[in-house]
């Protein structure tokens, strides 16, 4: 096909897209005035603007069980200036703004509870800077975890925070995500150096100071920490500077099974206490192991199990694996299988990352309700055992998997579509688990965030004084409550 013909076809598609949007504008009735629609379109352009029903439904939901809540309008900004102009426009008209990344959240954080404007940030997808000397990368919100790692692979560096889904990095920041590598490399909270944020009134700030790339600072309030995990309720992130790490010289992975949850978690606890710098330390219960075996073609024992990974030099990863093996043996483990073979390691961790799909395959056609909690490791065995008992008594199917190296675990409840009684029962168990975690000196969510699913639990965890302070912060930065309203806290 000639260049001119390609350009002609491209022009036809763009013209059709613009025309369809124009027709939709005529037919569409919403809480947004025609004046605001025209001004919004003038900011981002016709090709970065839509109010189609299909797009709105898509942007009103994430990967959670929550009922979709579509926005009235979707904009695709391509610069910080455009985001700022949109924020100023929405402030004038008191219209809610909801940031959207890849839609992989698990607590309904992108639903438009009061309608309004969704800002799809995926077209701001530049990797702005990578420093091999200072070990950082600055990215726009549309850059995903895998894209950054592919971009920097040849430099000998990587970004290790891995929540499983190929989420946008800035989406990971605003939910304070973590994942399988957090036990060694920390969560997003520990790996954000600076952020560019657009506030509700359109002001643009840098949370650590303009162009600051220092690894630590004691200057002023910790604004970076304030915006990490805010889920878009305080501002819209337009860039993030993240820590990078050297790719380890050698990696070994291991799997071992145990006769009980207590034996498995005791092993995990002792591995951490022994100072073994384990990079990944994952727990899978008997139900999850059965699901993974069936889905990924494995043949591991279908009992409580640990998946481990060690990073370092060739000698050190062997030493770490042997030490962990001895600890596991003292806790009645079965065979401790470990390897440095890349194919074997990839197969093991692919099975772990496919755990959600493996769970869903246990009940074909099911819907999934996922919840997570996090507790101190000393309380983890009791909390997991009590949770499994509650699940068993309810008659539900809910495989459990966890990042037990930092006390975090997840339940994947499998629901028959349209069964409201079962959904009600599962919600009650999930709330009970959150309260159990809080009573065990833990938190109602370790990495999924609050969204609109855990607002009540957050209120119980922090108490009225803590929530009152959060409300004051929210009101100071967003007096009209237009930044992703209905999430994290109630006003």
Helix content: 40-55%
What's the shape? globular
Whole-number total of structural domains: 3
Report strand %.
15-25%
Oligomer: single chain
Under CATH, the topology of the largest domain can be stated as Uridine Diphospho-n-acetylenolpyruvylglucosamine Reductase, domain 3
Cross-sheet strand order for the largest sheet:
15-12-14-13-17-18-16
Number of beta strands: 18
Function: Involved in D-lactate, but not L-lactate catabolic process.
GO biological process, one term: lactate catabolic process
Family: Belongs to the FAD-binding oxidoreductase/transferase type 4 family.
EC number: 1.1.2.4
Structure notes:
The chain has 17 helices and 18 strands. It has 491 residues and is α+β, with helices and mostly antiparallel strands. The protein folds into three domains: 3-120, Uridine Diphospho-n-acetylenolpyruvylglucosamine Reductase, domain 2 (2-Layer Sandwich), CATH 3.30.43; 127-246, Uridine Diphospho-n-acetylenolpyruvylglucosamine Reductase, domain 3 (2-Layer Sandwich), CATH 3.30.465; 250-356, Alpha-Beta Plaits, CATH 3.30.70. It has a seven-stranded antiparallel β-sheet, with helices on both faces. The protein has a five-stranded antiparallel β-sheet with strand order 5-6-10-8-9. The protein starts with a helix and ends in a 14-residue tail after the last helix. Mean pLDDT is 91; it is low at 1-29. Belongs to the FAD-binding oxidoreductase/transferase type 4 family. It is found in: Mitochondrion.
